[in-house]
Amino acid sequence: LPNFVTVEDLSIKMVETLLKRAQYFKNGGQVPCLDKPTYCVNMFFENSTRTHTSFEMAERKLNITELPFNPSQSSVKKGETLYDTLFTMDAIGVDFAVIRHPENEYYKKLIDLTKEQHLDIGLINAGDGSGQHPSQSLLDMMTIYEQFGYFKGLKVAIVGDITNSRVAKSNMQLLTRLGAKVYFSGPKYWYSSEFDEYGQYGAVDEILPEMDAIILLRVQHERHGEDSNEETFSAAEYHEKYGLNHVRYAHLKKNAIIMHPGPVNRGVEWADDLVEAPKSRFYTQMQNGVFVRMAMIEAVLRGRKLGGLE
Ligand code: CP
């Protein structure tokens, strides 16, 4: 893969290979030996804790040198475009860029331009607006696979702010292709008929007791516009209507697991004292994020024959 921007580019075989490789790294497997210095830059135009630091950790574990880049101190602030920023990175010898950006599919134009101008810099999407979040999706798949050892027939619910969630989009696509049965729940306002092809919508209290895995989504206040039709809730109302509280937790299947991409609004999507409960895989997801990102970066290095990798 010369660029890693959307789960839509992945065959099932590629997903399986990436998950296997991530598990190998997690089990202490040897990292590939790069025969040349390899450089990357992490360009985050939206805030991040997990994705940014775990890409950095993955890069360090792979012996790749990352160049610091802070958008607010960069020439982007003077109006320089994303393409010209990438053009600069290519010129100074960066091999690949990890980018998070608020614009959906920002990478499409960028990849077309880099091809047209014969730039030689790889692109890894660390989240685009409400579009895709491939690294989160793969770490979610790894966490589910680690638990159950298969996907076919597993019932997985995606609950909450689905319309605004790139995690939901990537996950509904990958889960259905891997054979899982996807269910949706949460405020109807944040559900759209465009998701019907991936699964069925139902009320939280009807759906949750049937699920093997539950993916709670963060209420993304920063993406909510000033739409006067928008349904508004207090944190307490959201928690009561849709949140994972103690009563709902008590009704889950014995082996069910609960996931959340983070950051968690504790006491809103998830009762504060259940975030680290036995069924929670939140910590495991964050651990797995490092290994999945190592596998993704390695795939791009191989796709570009960087560091002597084929
Ligand atoms: N899950 C996720 O993308 O978290 P961050 O925004 O902290 O990177």
What does this structure look like?
The chain has helices at residues 12-26, 50-61, 82-91, 106-116, 134-148, 166-177, 204-207, 235-242, 246-250, 282-303, and strands spanning 39-44, 65-67, 96-101, 122-128, 155-159, 181-185, 199-201, 213-216, 257-259. The model has no long low-confidence stretch (mean pLDDT 95). It has 10 helices and 9 strands. Helix content is 37%, strand content 14%. 41% of the residues are buried. The chain has a 5-stranded parallel β-sheet, covered by helices on one side. A 4-stranded parallel β-sheet has the order 2-1-3-4, with helices on both faces. It is of the alpha/beta class. Helix 2 packs across helix 10, helix 5 (134-148) packs across helix 6 and helix 5 packs across helix 10. The protein has 2 domains: 7-132 and 287-308, Rossmann fold; 134-285, Rossmann fold (3-Layer(aba) Sandwich). It binds phosphoric acid mono(formamide)ester. Residues 48-52, 127, 136, 261-263 line the site of phosphoric acid mono(formamide)ester.
